[in-house]
């Protein structure tokens, strides 16, 4: 698949799609979001509670997390409708970085933790940003402590062709860089946006119906 390199930019309040693709060109999860700011390279956006999201399941309806590890990244998948539940997330995604940073908030609005979602960047299209999920992630707590997430899934993801060994090395290096920033209390782990709130006038973004067909 040829990834689109055309330049797109959005304004505050616009709806965008945060889309996760696979390297074989198939579409995985899609999270509609509201734009806070965007300069054409760095997008800051909210994914709000109760937002309809696209996910993929096995043909019998099981979510990948419900599958045995050996099957989690292989086998046929079908699109399914789900909902973003429980907490809002503010997300900062840079066009060329191999990660995005998510601020998680409690339903009360209190900041909970950061989540470094390691991703392979694949540009933008007219709908939003395109990323490839890197499986491996880093969780950073409010006190600056951190931990790797989902390391147990890497061998199976590699075997299924979700990424190459070289791409995994780059994802891990990105994670190490973000851990270093967390240890130093440097941006984005310096308290910036921890008191952020979505615009109360925003409605929940829509999920285009064609993404479920």
Could you please say which CATH topology applies here? FomD barrel-like fold
Number of strands: 10
If you compute it from the alpha carbons, what radius of gyration comes out, rounded to the nearest whole angstrom? 17 Å
Distance separating the two termini = 20 Å
Global morphology:
globular
Which spans have pLDDT < 50 for at least 5 consecutive residues?
Answer: none
Number of separate structural domains: 1
Separate helix tally:
2
Helix proportion: 10-25%
How is this structure best described in words?
With 213 residues, this protein is mainly beta. It has a single domain (14-186), classed as FomD barrel-like fold (Beta Barrel). The protein is built from 2 helices and 10 strands, in the order ββββββββββαα. It has helices at 154-159, 165-184, and strands spanning 15-21, 27-38, 42-47, 51-57, 78-84, 89-94, 99-105, 111-124, 128-141, 146-149. The protein has a 7-stranded mixed β-barrel. Strands 4-5 form a two-stranded antiparallel sheet. The longest helix has 20 residues, at 165-184. The model has no long low-confidence stretch (mean pLDDT 94).
């Amino acid at each position: 698949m040829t990834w689109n390199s055309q330049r797109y930019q959005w304004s505050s309040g616009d709806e965008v799609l945060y889309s996760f693709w696979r390297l074989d060109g198939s579409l995985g999860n899609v999270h509609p979001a509201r734009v806070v700011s965007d300069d054409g390279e760095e997008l800051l956006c909210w994914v709000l509670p109760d937002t309809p999201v696209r996910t993929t399941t096995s043909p019998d309806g099981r979510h990948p997390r419900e599958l045995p590890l050996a099957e989690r990244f292989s086998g046929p998948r079908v699109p399914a409708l789900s909902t973003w539940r429980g907490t809002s997330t503010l997300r900062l995604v840079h066009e060329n970085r191999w990660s995005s940073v998510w601020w998680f908030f409690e339903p009360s609005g209190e900041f909970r933790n950061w989540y470094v979602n390691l991703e392979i960047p694949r540009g933008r299209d007219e709908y939003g940003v395109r990323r490839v999920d890197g499986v491996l992630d880093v969780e950073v707590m409010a006190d600056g402590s951190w931990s790797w997430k989902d390391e147990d899934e890497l061998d199976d993801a590699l075997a299924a062709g979700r990424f190459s060994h070289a791409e995994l090395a780059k994802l891990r290096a990105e994670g190490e860089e973000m851990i270093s920033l967390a240890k130093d209390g440097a941006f984005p782990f310096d308290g910036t946006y921890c008191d952020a709130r979505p615009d109360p006038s925003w409605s929940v973004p829509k999920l285009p119906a064609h993404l479920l067909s």
